[in-house]
Write a structure and sequence with these properties.
Distance between the termini: 90 Å
Number of helices: 4
Shape: elongated
Structural class: mainly beta
Helix content: 10-25%
Order of helices and strands: HEEEEEEEEHEEEEEEHHE
Strand order of the largest sheet: 2-1-3-14-11-12
Number of domains: 1
Radius of gyration: 36 Å
Largest sheet: 6 strands, antiparallel
Length: 321
């Protein structure tokens, strides 16, 4: 009995010593990383015109304001797009988006009673001459809800009539092309405005050019816009870019890029109109000098027509599909 008691005391003592041993830690070392944070970056696009006026966070004014343009007229604008954001991992891309097209006609600045135009409207695709509205719009009005005032050259091109003379001096009567002022499915003037876009850069802010760059600079890169040529005629028109996102290039943080946009108002060749089935035959041959001046009579159809549009500049983190 005494032996069993001694063994029990020894066992209890061993357990106690084991418990005391658990109070002492092994070797260790602890380092603490303090002040960790996760901060989101930003995309911040600023648009400047060639005068250096910067627009950021508000409404950007119109860059194209062209009135009374004649065929073969060009209008160019230079834009400076800059990324004032802060980020890493990916390089954002910048796009231009032509949208919100509005088509109509421009009220001519004629004197009432002298050279007063005809007023026409469209019915089932045909031109109809109508009485002028009771209250005439002011000159410069961009009309969409009224009949269209047209003078003789435009009236003939749109509604038909005498367009000129052949090589023998005989009068040539042409079929009209229809009312070309956007009062239908199309935006006619935009279908005859060529578009070209070139870019230069990007460059860090501290190396930004101090003035408008020279178009002869070899660093300009002409954008290939052939994918947007919907009718495949080799000429890109403004209407073909409506609602398209056109990538201008990568725009790193704290960098800028120059953009040159050129719009060109074309002549409309009679052969093209014939090929498109808009007239049943060609009336003049532009290879004969006496008839050459009549070869572009369809161009008269876009006289005093109007197209308004917006240009959205978009900076996106990831490329569009």
């Amino acid at each position: 009995m005494k032996r069993n008691v001694i063994l029990a005391v020894v066992a209890i003592a061993a357990l106690a010593l084991a418990g005391m041993g658990g109070l002492f830690a092994d070797f260790s070392d602890i380092e603490i990383s303090q002040d960790n944070f996760f901060e989101a970056g930003s995309l911040d696009l600023a648009v400047s015109n060639y005068l250096g006026t910067e627009y950021n966070g508000g409404i950007v004014p119109a860059f194209f304001e062209v009135s009374a343009a004649l065929p073969c007229c060009d209008k160019s604008v230079f834009l400076d797009l800059e990324n004032w954001g802060n980020g890493f991992q990916t390089v954002p891309r910048v796009y231009i988006h032509f949208k919100n097209f509005e088509c109509g006609w421009v009220m001519p600045k004629y004197i009432v009673g002298t050279m007063e135009p005809k007023w026409i409207t469209c019915e089932d695709g045909e031109c109809v001459v109508v009485d002028p509205p009771a209250v005439l719009p002011i000159p410069g009005y961009h009309g969409t809800g009224l009949p269209k005032p047209v003078t003789e050259p435009e009236l003939v091109a749109e509604c038909g009539g005498i367009a000129g003379e052949d090589e023998d001096g005989n009068l040539v009567i042409v079929d009209g092309l229809g009312c070309c002022f956007g009062d239908g499915d199309g935006c006619e003037l935009a279908e005859h405005i060529d578009v070209a876009i070139a870019v230069m850069g990007p460059w860090p802010h501290e190396l930004k050019p101090k003035e408008n760059p020279d178009l002869n600079d070899p660093n300009w890169v002409q954008l290939d816009l052939s994918d947007y040529d919907k009718n495949g005629d080799g000429d890109l028109k403004l209407n073909e870019l409506e609602c398209e996102e056109i990538e201008l290039g990568k725009l790193p943080y704290c960098n800028g890029i120059w953009v040159h946009i050129m719009l060109h108002l074309q002549d409309i060749d009679e052969e093209d109109v014939y090929a498109e089935g808009l007239i049943p035959e060609t009336y003049f041959d532009d290879t004969i000098p006496a008839e050459a001046k009549w070869d572009h009579w369809p161009t008269n159809a876009i006289q005093a027509d109007y197209v308004g549009f917006d240009m959205a500049f978009e900076l996106l983190q990831n490329p569009l599909p």
